[in-house]
Amino acid sequence: MNLKILIVDDDFINRKLLQALLRKHPDIVRETVEAENGSEALTILRDDTSIDLILLDILMPVLDGKEFLKIFRSDSANSNIPVVVLTTDDTQKAGAYELGADDFLLKPINEDELLGKISRWAQEA
Predict the structure, then answer these.
(1) pLDDT over 70 at 125, yes or no
(2) Of the CATH numbers 1.10.510.10, 3.40.50.2300, 3.30.930.10, 3.40.50.720, which one belongs to the domain with range 3-124?
(3) pTM to 2 decimal places
(4) Which residues, 6+ apart, have CB-to-CB distance to 20 below 8 Å?
(5) Residues linked to residue 8 through DSSP beta bridges, in sequence order
(6) What was the pLDDT predicted at 48?
(7) Which band of pLDDT confidence, cut at 50, 70 and 90, is reported for residue 94?
(8) How many CA atoms does the CB half-sphere of 76 hold within 13 Å?
(9) N or C: which end of the chain has fewer CB within 10 A?
(10) CA atoms within 13 A on the CB side of 93
């Protein structure tokens, strides 16, 4: 299955790098959508029910990844959409899992590791 992935990161360059990396793999990723904070991501998710996977930064202004996860996971309709947390801060791992993250990757992102995780989610979708 080819996934539609929402990339949530306040850093424009990080979003574009992830988007470029994912576009190289149309067998796994059919489309990417971007949000620069958790608030924008919630708006996108409210309007677009075709998102299959979320790549989520934790440290962002407006609505950070932790607050996004609290709100997002409070709606049981969102329980089937996997969230992979991407961050430079390894100390965020336990908290991210407690809030409902399904997986965790440290930045800078290792392309093979990211694609392995996405492929696994694609197979389970």
Answers:
(1) no
(2) 3.40.50.2300
(3) 0.95
(4) none
(5) 35, 56
(6) 94
(7) confident
(8) 0
(9) N
(10) 8
Instruction: Please give, one letter per residue, the 3-state secondary structure of the chain.
Output: CCEEEEEECCCHHHHHHHHHHHHCCCCCEEEEEEECCHHHHHHHHHHCCCCCEEEEECCCCCCCHHHHHHHHHCCHHHCCCCEEEEECCHHHHHHHHHCCCCEEEECCCCHHHHHHHHHHHHHHC
Residue in 15, 84, 49 with CA at minimum distance from that of residue 23 = 15
Structure tokens at 117: 């995780």
Query: Which residue type occupies 104?
Result: F
* Domain ranges across the chain: 3-124
Confirm if 52 and 78 have CB atoms less than 8 A apart. no
Residue 78 structure tokens? 């969102």
Residue 52's closest CA among 106, 98, 112, 7? 7
